Task: structure prediction
Amino acid sequence: MAEARKRRRMRISAIVGTLPMIVVAVGVYVIGIAFTFYWSFTSSRLFPNNNFVGFSQYERLWHDDRWEIAVQNIWIFGVLLIAFSMVFGYLLAVFMDQRIRQEDTFRSIFLYPFAMSLIVTGLIWQWMLDPNFGIENTIHTLGWTSFQFSPLVDQKTAIYGLVVAGIWQSSGVTMAILLAGLRGIDGEIWKAAKVDGIPSWRVYLFIALPMMRGAIGTAFVLQCVGVVRVYDLVVAMTGGGPGIATNMPAVYVIQMITSSQNVGLGMAAATMMLLPVITVLALIGLVRWIAARRQAAAIRRELATS
Amino acid sequence: MTDTSAPAMTLPADAREPQGPKPHRISPARIGVYGFLLISAVFFLIPLYVMLVTSFKTMPEIRLGHLFNLPQTWTVQPWIDAWMNACTGRDCNGLSPGFWNSVKIAVPSVIVSIIIASINGYALSFWRYKFANVFFGLLVFGAFVPYQVVIYPLIMALRQVHLFSTLPGIIIIHTIFGMPILTILFRNYYAAMPVELFKAARVDGAGFWQVFLRIMLPMSVPITIVAVILQVTGIWNDFLFGVVFAGRSNWPMTVQLNNIVNTTTGTRAYNVDMAATIVTAAVPLVVYFISGRWFVRGIAAGAVKG
Result:
């Protein structure tokens, strides 16, 4: 009796101790998301209301040029940034793996931009890409007057300026994660490859790369989460401009709930941001579930035959 | 996320020696390796170098446009202006109020969020009550949710309890958004501890809090260091939550920096802007250079979420 009561008290302590977690998990990630979803079907302006308007906010959203540009931008930004950052990061990791001197110094240099705020990164590159004072003008004064490198002033190219800043900020992290992955590979493959006379670039490309799926996945996920959340960089570097050329979904939502006072539309946009995340997570869950089932079935067959 | 047992810290950030093929002394390949790394290092370092030299130049010299030259006449006035006199709108107090606001936000946020997350991790590893893993699964899901999806419901919730635009409000927000990653971090750490340790303490009659305070806490120093690094840099670098939740009188340094640089009317004092940017980046950079490899470990641990 006493023992059972004591155990129950213990369990209550554990629940009390994790109360903040329960409140956040349910309050923010269930109820909060439910409210966002609900408000996206209302005509809420500055404050939420309960005036149900069906899908009309979503209709408005997909007819809004700003949103269209924002979606287009996040694709350009995301695909280019992740591709460049992965390739550049892996190249850096491979070169770092060549028993070089001063490895720690190089690592510190490649990684320090990641320690700084994206506001700082944005301001640094706003300056570097400034047509009057930045790289372009400096090259001009050196005598190459036709040189052009000021993407931020043109609506068509401003998004690529953001990509440059993004690469500068995040390639070092990709390098660090992929280098950890490289070092985690069994060292025997180098001896084996040497015996077989396989050149090392082929080992890195065709043998090492497929063996470090975990590290690649980690780097990829980290980049994706960063891309979807990109807000500070845009605000600091372009403010979404010139015009609306560098708008992004994350910026759009904040604009809607603050200056534009259009909560209903903002919540529809927020729901659209959540949709791909849920889809990808569901797919990963499904793949794991199928794999687990297959494994279980295989084990059962194994047991049946033995 | 159906499988919440997956996130394991499998990345030995720097576990082994480089395993690349053994190099010859000096060969063209060797020169190529160092050439690539040095050019990359220049790419990463040039923005910082430009910022530093510009912040010590006078405005007339900046207008000449020699971005890479050292200052002809060195001046520290831009640094003094950035700290005390730079204007955001009508206030001309420089960055120093923002610095102290950031300290006031970061210190309690770091402490509160780490205390809560360590209790979460401990309870999830040793006191799994019914549904505990459901809450944890929701938190892991939350690690992937774009902030914009839950920001508006949180604004409304904090308004209800009159904490919107207050210091406690922004501390709560940082605690909420830090919780997913920190909880994963601590849970994985405690899960790797020998369960016998816990059982022995239980046999001796220690309860939930006693085991935590006497056994687990003293053994949590390494993971706490990682968590502190992660939180200090993360919260210091935050812009979005600061600008939305802190309120004008509590705006953190990143927000004031962006205001100083991007909303100034009239001629821009680039040297002051650069000095202000470096001052804002200084705290996370110092943390980064002191912590060295711990920082990488934090990224890797925080990144392994899927």
About this structure: Chain A touches chain B through 115 residues (CB under 8 Å). Chain A has a mean pLDDT of 88.
